[in-house]
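Hi W., the guanosine-5'-triphosphate complex you wanted:
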Amino acid sequence: MSGQRVDVKVVMLGKEYVGKTSLVERYVHDRFLVGPYQNTIGAAFVAKVMSVGDRTVTLGIWDTAGSERYEAMSRIYYRGAKAAIVCYDLTDSSSFERAKFWVKELRNLEEGCQIYLCGTKSDLLEEDRRRRRVDFHDVQDYADNIKAQLFETSSKTGQSVDELFQKVAEDYVSVAAFQVMTGVSFPSPVETSSRPTASGPLHELPDPPKE
Ligand SMILES: Nc1nc2c(ncn2[C@@H]2O[C@H](COP(=O)(O)OP(=O)(O)OP(=O)(O)O)[C@@H](O)[C@H]2O)c(=O)[nH]1
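Structure:
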């Protein structure tokens, strides 16, 4: 992919091991990789073209590293994002605390960024409901408060993964339509160029977004 036009910059944020890379893998390649866990180093980029009604929308998805070691780098990647998918693991309460940390940052620093909260690994709850460590209703209240949308997904089974990314694209289209109607100009699409990926199975890493 070179010089591909991206309509919506999407950034994946969340504690390490919550399943950000797996979510992108399921959505983009419809697969769930088994084998030893490989943490993301820095960030990885992938673009996905999709349809919303009769429109084509290209999502440019930045999968950031969850390790706190890379926190400063993740900040570079969320700059200018139109959507952030903030992930937490439904079986790990500390990962929800980390999600709140990212929400706070985005709310303070990226006003125009729509937040999607994503509770991951829902298949583990289907196996054993007692594994849930993050209450659905608590998160729903929190999501209402911060005007975010909430999804619970499984990259293993694919549950709600397409719906999540579809909603991101649909929201982009309706906001863009609203802006055209009201005459408010919309930022021009981001141009990307190709470069080898920093990590993992995702590919096509463009230049980091400029501040
Ligand atoms: N059962 C189950 N396991 C999952 C799911 N999603 C991810 N995992 C597992 O959780 C581990 C971490 O997944 P990753 O996608 O690498 O997590 P990450 O958030 O990208 O991690 P970092 O790159 O370190 O930030 C891997 O062993 C995955 O196989 C899921 O939906 N269900």
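The chain is about 35% helix and 25% strand.

W.
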